[in-house]
Amino acid sequence: MQTPEQFIIDELKRIIALQAKQIDMLIRENAQIKRELEKFLPKKNSRNSSIPPSKDENRPKKTNSLREKSEKKVGGQPGHEGKTLQMTESPDKIIKHHTCFCPDCGKDVSSFPFELIGKRQIIEIPMIKQVVTEHRVYSCTCSCGSIIESDFPQGVDYPVSYGPNMESLVGYLSVRQHLPFKRLQEVMHDIFSTPISEGGLHILLNRLANKGKQAYGIIRNVVMNSPVIGTDETGMKINGKIHWFWTWQSNQATYIAASPNRGIETVNNHSQGISRDAVLVHDCWKAHFQTPVNLHQLCIVHLVRELKYLEELYKIAWPARFRLLLYEALEMKKRFTPPDYYSPCHGRNILEYELDNLLKEIIDPELKILITFQKRIVKYRNYLFPFLYHPHVPPHNNASEQAIRNIKIKQKISGQFKIIRSAENFAILRSIIDTTIKNGQNVLAALNVIADH
Predict the structure, then answer these.
(1) Which of 253, 155, 169, 174 has its CA nearest to residue 425?
(2) Rounded CA separation 31/26 (Å)
(3) DSSP string computed for 1-20
């Protein structure tokens, strides 16, 4: 027979075993409930956790590509004119191949007359070797007793220095081809047999940029006196701190400047003397509106991309209708002939009327980003369609974006600039290079002209 103490112990064991089963059951039920609730709980994203924006699911991108899928196959398209190596009419070296003996009878035919039946050419480059020119000066004693000494020519200022062709080549490889200094040193050593230090590269770039300042000033004047000017800006880092590259460009020239700020101060410093009759094309950055010009043209492509984002974000028709309106304006631009810009146009009037109606529509107050966009367009309403009234005004800012894209390529390949002087050198030389390209000239030849100056 159990004692009272033994009965209590057995009862407690039974209760503990029962509670253990209940706890196990509750744990399983709790896990199942959590799994069900996860379907309804908001997932982690860049707004509520440390997840980067690129990992967000179902989040509309503000910079969606506007390129439509093409049905074209990969590779050359029908009608594309192929290119192949062409023979030159004036080869540098000719090697004649004559047969000495007849393969049938063995007779010596070297003295027989030969007729040309074919030719083939091999294109090759010679081994590159640096050329060292030594300049020597002398003295002599005149019969009158005076000692006469000759002088070194202009530009020969140091015991050993690099020539102008070295300056232009380093500038070309660094600024045009975006080579970082380590790889540039390797190219100079391995290809041109010229070892050069990083400090030496800086000296050459400084010298070339100094010589290019006059051309840089001419480029700026050409741009600022153009009837249509595009402008844009992009961030860069100098020794870890944010700075900016700005560009002002036209069909004939591209002017690039490095600046510590993105505000009106830079506009005032670099756009002095800008033509008051010019049309300025840009992406709606507020500092550009402070430029003293006749008219502004907003980049339609930027607006279309922004409207596509708003359409995906709110799932309403207003952004889509606005986007279609802008597409109609772009198509109208393609159809216009010069007389159309200066005569009444029914289609253009309809676009203006539809634009005003869109801007008057009441938007749900909950759609705050869309309301902000509408207010901005109302403020700059007169800057949407100038391209439909001026034949040389483009509806986009692509040329300016292409100008500053080289800065991003340079930073992606070479990293940040270490000092502001390097960024300024890049701006000067890149302005000269881009202007040279726009005018169909040879870039290295242009830099050679600057270096010889």
Answers:
(1) 174
(2) 8
(3) ---HHHHHHHHHHHHHHHHH
For helices 368-379 and 300-314, the axis angle rounded to 10 degrees is: 160
CA distance 18 to 426: 79
Give the span between the Cα atoms of 264 and 250, in whole angstroms: 21
CA–CA gap between residue 413 and residue 419 (Å, rounded):
17
Rounded Cα distance between 310 and 320, Å, is 9
Name the percent of the chain lying above pLDDT 70.
Answer: 92
Q: Are 176 and 433 in contact (CB under 8 A)?
A: yes
- Residue for token pair 């198509």: 331
Task: Report phi then psi at 305, rounded to 5.
Answer: -65, -40
**393/171 Cα distance (integer angstroms):** 33
How far is the CA of 272 from the CAs of 56, 165, 265, 288, in angstroms? 45, 34, 11, 13
Q: How confident is the model at residue 1 (pLDDT cuts 50, 70, 90)?
A: low
Q: One-letter amino acid identity for 432?
A: I
pTM: 0.79
